[in-house]
Structure formats: C-alpha cells, structure tokens
DNA sequence: CACTAAAGCGGAGGCGCCTCCGTTTATTAC
DNA sequence: GTAATAAACGGAGGCGCCTCCGCTTTAGTG
C-alpha cells in the first residue's frame, strides 16, 4: 500500500490532470516551465523558444509537444507565477503579524508587477484574447488580498472601515507611469504610505 | 514653368509627404502596396512578406526599407482600402440616383467587410494598438455614409426621419455571426430590406 | 553628353519557428 | 528477469523574418 503506484503518480501531479504523464515526460515538462519562467523574465516574452529548450536540456520537438504554441507556454508560466504570489499570502500570514503580512505581500506584489514591465503589450493581448485566464487570475489575486486584509481587520492591526477592494483600488496607482526609472521606488513608498494610513486608523479607533 | 521639376514631383505624391521619393522608389512602393493588398486578401494577414516582395518583383530588402514592420505595411494597405471605399461614395453619387447610390455603396461595404473575415483577430489587435488608425478610418467611413444618406434624404428618394447613424446602426447586424457560409447572402438581403424600409417611408411621407 | 553624390536596390546569411519521423525509453505483462 | 508496445524524445530540414552592406540607378551639375 505504501508503494502503490497510483499513489506515487498522484503525488507527482500538481493539479489533478486527465492523463498521468510518463515520469520522464513530467520531468521535462516541469523543467521547461521553470526554465521558461526565468528566460521570459530575463529576455522578455518574445524570447527564443529554442533557447528555452536548449537551457532545459531537451529538444525543440519536446517543447512543442508539451506546448503547441508560444501562448500555451506563456499561459502556464503566468498561471504558475500568479499561483506562487497567492500562495505567499498564506505563508506570510503564518510567519508575521497580520499587518506586516499584508505589507510584505503588497511589496511582493509590486515586485511581481515590476517583472511584467515590457511584457505589458503582449501580456495584455494574451489576457484580452483569453478571457478565462484574466478572470481566473485576477480573481485569485484579489482573493489572496482579501484574506490578508480581513485577518488584519479582524485582529485590529489595521483600521476596520476598509475592505480588500478599497486596498486594491488604492494600489492601482502602481499600474501607472510604468516605464520610468523611479517607478519601483515610488511604488514601494506608495505601499508604505498606504500601510501607515491603514495602521493609523487602527490605533485611533481602538 | 510648365515643366518645372517641383510641379512634377508634387503631381506624383498621393498625399503631400515630407520627401518626394525618387521615381524608382515611388514605383516600387506603389507596386508593393498593390501586391500586398491582393496577397493579404488571398492568404490572410500572416502572408509571407517574402512572397509579397517576390511577386512585386523587388528584393526583400526593398520591402523592409519602405515598411520596417509588417504592421506598417498592413496599415498602409488598410488605409488605402478604406480610402477606396469612401471614394466610391462620391463616384456612385454621380452615376446613380441617390437612393441607388446609397444601396450600391452599402453592398460594396458588405463586400469589403467580407474580405476582412479571418483577418478579424489580427486586425482587431492592430486597431486597438493603433488608436489613430481606428478613429481615422471609422470617421472616414461614417462620413461617406452620411454624405450619401443626406443626399438621398434631400431629394426625397428615402424617408426624411433617419440619419447616417441610424443607418450605420441598422447595418451593424453584418458584423455578427461572421464565419457562417450564409453570411454573405444574409448580409446582402439585410441591405435590401433596409433600403426598402428607407424608400417606403419616402413614398408615404411625400 | 559625362560625372558624381546620394538614394535606392537586393539577396546572402543568421536566426527563430514549427513539423515530421526515425530512435530511444518507460511501463506493463508475463 | 525479458519482451512487447505505447509514449516520448530530439533534431534535421524547410520556411519565414529581418539586417547589413556592396552594387546599381537616379537626379542633379557643368
């Protein structure tokens, strides 16, 4: 029972999928996604697929079998990154007081957006072409934020008269004037400012 | 004065441009646009640029000098086609009674939309990327339609209680269910139906 | 005409995309 | 263990993209 094959197979699968891939196939697929993430980050979304295959140590044919188009690959990478961002919410919530968790998560959100600079146009096309992708991921992100905000409101570390959508709205400034060199700094200050506002209210009303 | 060089140069230019191209360059450019229009129409917007150069009898380098990106070329072709469509309004107005001119122009509009089937996605991306292109061309088209409608209203061949935007609105049905085989026929019938409605009113209210 | 500078031409070459199919490997059955 | 077979691999090859630069043509000038 302990070494039952199907249990091992299921252990492998990140999300339940139709067919359990052969071990080598799963390995290559994972590798490709991982490498693609870093190549896209460093070279932009138009990076050479052949370079990705090369760096992953597989043939170009293997890449194409797993991801028939560039968009397929980009989508998987993008979903994985959103996933990781959202998962960080839970981890931060465990390790830190809830107001600190919220702040750190927002800073991480800024970092995440930063890596998407330059990918903006292609990503916008992808998101407008694939509306499921858009609603899935934006839903996930705002859910993660909601979780953090509600926890912080609940234990009184931030003021109680705001909710997640207010905070998201306040964060929307980080989408503007994207390509300027000061963008990163400004955005980090914006988050601090926002946190001060949130904490200030908490002290006052308690 | 009759053979003054600058006069000849200006004669060549379709629209006043910064630099009067050398004769051979102008010839090649015109040729490329013309060939590109038919190749795009027959192979779709992703047609090979090398084929276009080949068919135009120029080197690929020449194509790229005139049109640094595919989008540049597509844009010029698109503008030229919209131009031709709008110019047809004036010609039809001269040759036919104004209600007939209006009807024929609308049928031609249907034909024009028909050639854009399949190009839909790429064209939509281009139009959303390049907002000037969108506003320019849609402005031109509705202006042409307005001219025809107003003339027909003025001489009483169609009813007087409609304007160009009503007609455009009524035509919007031709954008829907685009890829079905009956689309063409349905759209032509829609135009006839619309014209009958417009003429009917004219008889009644006069 | 002849001459010259500037403008234009064109295609080789390097790279990326994607498909196709002969070879290799994991898995299953015995 | 071995055999059989389905799954997966990988890279050659064909095509398109785009740049670069040596060659050709044009448009002026005397």
Describe the structure.
The structure is a homodimer of 206-residue chains. Chain A is mostly helical. The first copy, chain A, folds into 2 domains: 1-68, Arc Repressor Mutant, subunit A, CATH 1.10.10; 70-206, Tetracycline Repressor, domain 2. The first copy, chain A, is 75% helix and 0% strand. Chain A contains 10 helices and no strands. The first copy, chain A, has helices at 5-12, 23-43, 49-56, 60-66, 70-95, 98-116, 120-129, 131-154, 164-171, 183-205. In chain A, helix 8 crosses helix 9. The longest helix of chain A is centred in the middle third of the chain and has 26 residues, at 70-95. Chain A is elongated. In chain A, 19% of the residues are buried. Chain A binds chain B through residues 121, 125, 129, and chain B through 121, 125, 129. Chain B binds a DNA duplex (30 and 30 nucleotides) through residues 5, 21-25, 28, 48-51, 53, 58-62, 64-65, 68, 70.
